[in-house]
Amino acid sequence: QAQMVESGGGLVQPGGSLRLSCAASPSIFSIGTMGWYRQAPGKQRELVASVTGGGSASYSDFAKGRFTIYRDNAKIMVYLQMNSLKPEDTAVYYCNAEDPLTATTYWGQGTQVTVSS
Question: Of the chain's two ends, which shows fewer C-beta atoms within 10 Å, N or C?
């Protein structure tokens, strides 16, 4: 059973927008910080943004001003709104969630985002 399931990726033109969604399984005992990472071909996975259980968000420099992360604790979901997309944003985007009580990090399977004209 998948613990984290992403959706919302796709092909978009430069300057366009996408919203990624990620649903966490209710079977996860507790959820603390949730985040989005990305991995481009030939590169290491990198943090895009994260949000604590209380809603405090932080962003990598490349995401500041263009991306917004937010979560819905009732639905156990995390979102990434991406605006002003650039070709260099092309990557597989992964969501994750940390369970502080079991010290476990859960990952989704990834969703492809391609920014191209």
Answer: N
Per-residue pLDDT tens digits for 83-98: 999 999 999 999 999 9
pLDDT of 102: 87
Between CA 52 and CA 56 the distance in angstroms is 5
Backbone angles phi, psi at 88, to 5 degrees: -70, -5
Cβ within 8 Å of residue 83, ≥6 positions away = 17, 66, 67, 68
Average pLDDT over residues 51-67: 96
